[in-house]
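Q: What residues go here?
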């Protein structure tokens, strides 16, 4: 296996999702942020910007840009944490939750296309192996 294969798969997935999400005015990165925020247990437990950066593997300036665009579309609100003013708390708006619901099927369709022809055991193995590879890389930081 060559790491270039992983990069090429990532590039193909991102390009195809960007194409499929364009009718909603979303990018793959914005859809990823919506998914992560929608998985947050409650609005009181909104993610911090730093948590989003870590989950998405993106820099602070990149996430700032993504969040500004999402806030302009009323998909999220960004608030200063009242306890720790250094932190920004990101809340999904009702419009953001509706958008996440609308585009989740697009992501699911591409995932299903990507794994078509694979058995459920093969899909589970790929998932487990990718998680182990990610852990191997992040363990050396």
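A:
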């Amino acid at each position: 296996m060559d790491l270039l294969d992983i990069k090429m798969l990532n590039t193909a997935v991102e390009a195809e999702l960007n194409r499929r999400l364009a009718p909603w005015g979303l990018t793959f990165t914005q859809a990823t942020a919506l998914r992560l925020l929608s998985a947050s247990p409650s609005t009181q437990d909104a993610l911090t910007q730093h948590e989003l950066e870590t989950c998405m593997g993106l820099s602070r300036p990149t996430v700032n840009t993504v969040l500004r665009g999402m806030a302009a579309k009323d998909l999220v609100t960004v608030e200063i944490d009242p306890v720790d003013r250094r932190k920004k708390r990101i809340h999904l708006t009702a419009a953001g939750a509706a958008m996440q619901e609308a585009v989740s099927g697009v992501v699911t369709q591409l995932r299903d296309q990507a794994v078509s022809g694979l058995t459920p055991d093969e899909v589970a193995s790929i998932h487990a192996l990718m998680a182990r590879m990610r852990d191997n890389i992040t363990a050396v930081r």
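A: Context that may help when evaluating the design: The chain has a mean pLDDT of 92. The helical segments are 3-21, 28-38, 49-56, 60-72, 94-114, 120-138.
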